[in-house]
Fold this sequence. Notes:
Layout: H1 2-27, E1 48-52, E2 62-70, E3 75-80, H2 81-84
Antiparallel strand pairs: 1-2, 2-3
Amino acid sequence: MSSRKFGLNLVVVLAIAALFTGFWALVNRPVTAPNWPEQISGFSYSPFQQGQYPQKHMKGQQGTELCLYNKKSKTAYITEWDSIRPTAKAQ
């Protein structure tokens, strides 16, 4: 009797797994990417650039840059993160 119960439990578990797999396959079908417009209004990226500066006048100096964007004036500028980074308060 216990082998019959095990077989029934196995069939139920496999049926549930098949249902979930089928639902997942139905929901996660590949879609085509939309056509890109001529002008992209915005995008996201990591503003931090860490490592050696590529400019010759920096002579391979280490540092981190931060790119800041002003929405009002629609301008961007780069500053050294090291110069504006908050420092830990001494206790």
